[in-house]
Write a structure and sequence with these properties.
Elements: H1 2-8, H2 15-35, H3 53-77, H4 86-104, H5 114-137, H6 149-164, H7 176-193, H8 201-213, H9 215-219, H10 223-227, H11 234-240, H12 244-247
GO molecular function, one term: dioxygenase activity
Keywords: Dioxygenase, Oxidoreductase
Protein name: Taurine catabolism dioxygenase taud/tfda
Length: 250
Amino acid sequence: MLKEKALELLKENDHGERVRQAGLLQAEAQGRWQELPSRFQLQGALKSSRGSPIERDFLVSARLNHLHVDFLIQLALVHRMVEPTAEIIDVAAKMLNVAVESILLKEQLANSGTGLIWRIAYYCLPAAGIICLYLLKGPDGDPQGTVSMPKLIQDLSVLVAQIESGSLVLVEDPNHALLAGAAQTIQSVLARVLPGNLRSSRHAQSTYAELGQSESSLNWQPWYDDSGSLDFDPDFWSNLAVHPALLSGA
């Protein structure tokens, strides 16, 4: 019900009213979370939690579901997807971290088969998509400095490694093309960040100033601005793969 309400926010054309409704929905979602007994709330690292595989899997599911509601709310408040807000970046970072840890500890969870693939597609990829947009935005992408860059890089790297290892999804699996395409694009983003092209604030600022004035940047249209879709599907990842910041480093 909460997720349906979050998606309904997108139909509200008045931004002020959308913000008002988002605030009410956030309060409702937080209230629902607080109503859960503390033993069912994953507050720290999954590896530090105790319980049976079924109980630990529930902890992950409950936490991801709560974060996903907040993610959808923040997604509805973003003006342009190419410029993610600090709020959605923060939620995406948390959601990615929980999902990635559940991948690493899949042997200790009850639902580590088909449910794990669904969890990656439903939670990991949307979070990773927002974080990739943030990384490509440059040093001004998170003015509040609420996220840890090393942690983001680590979680994205682990996600790519797990997908490319072939241990998560077989080639004949229906989700293989989506996950493989996403992993390839994420790897391109990481390759753009890790060499230091975006590590130097001064260099990054000049790089993005140049990109902002370039014809390729002006012509590039993110999938959201084109279609209004909120699906982080193959179209999103193929579109992101031709982001000017990636092509400029080729």
